[in-house]
Amino acid sequence: xxxxxxxxxxxAVVATIVIVGGLFVxxxxxxxxxAPKQVSVTINPTDHQIGTDSAKITLVExxxxxxxxxxxxxxxxxxxxxxxxxxxxxxxxHFPLTQIHQNALAASYxxxxxxxxxxxx
Length: 121
Prior knowledge:
Elements: H1 2-30, E1 48-50, E2 57-63, H2 68-83, E3 88-94, H3 104-116
């Protein structure tokens, strides 16, 4: 009796795996990737910008000076701006996450004070 019970359980598990795997294969073969979208963003005269208005690509970053993820991304942004400086326009916008980072808003104010002295970037 024990052999048939575990045999049935094993068969049910194998059948479930086969069915789920088959459904996954069908789903992957019938799904199509989404077409890339062009997004329109209004650029304001008060936005901090690197690059020219005629650049083919505009990268808009919303960032928090106290955010660890933003910090990790900063090096990549610098590299992209450096490598593609003739073809890219970089826009920086403040997005202080005050509910998480208690000094984020003060840091954005300090950055704006630096901007008024021509020292934002």
